[in-house]
Write a structure and sequence with these properties.
The structure is a single chain. The chain is α+β, with helices and mostly antiparallel strands and 98 residues long. The chain has three helices and four strands. Strands 2-3-1-4 form a four-stranded antiparallel β-sheet. α1 packs antiparallel against α3.
Length: 98
Amino acid sequence: MSNLVLVVTVKTQPGVAETLMPAMLENAAQSAQEETCYQFDVIVSQDDENTFIFYEVYKDEQALAEHRKTPHFLNYWNLMQELGDRVERSAQLYDKLS
């Protein structure tokens, strides 16, 4: 079975990234400690300091489902909800081939 890759794009309005950044980075750091999360990178665009990509690799769909129950993910997710339309988020799932 191939690993599951989640690629998330987060775009914030100017000034919002400073509020969201600590939760994004904490989520990534804590997620990388999860046994079934193999990689979690937060990447910022060189052209737009308000555009981020999360590159996440999980063992499988169950691992991603468990990740979404963790306190660090919920902290990030709840902050995203509080920020409302000042943040845009899109996500795509992929199967890792190599």
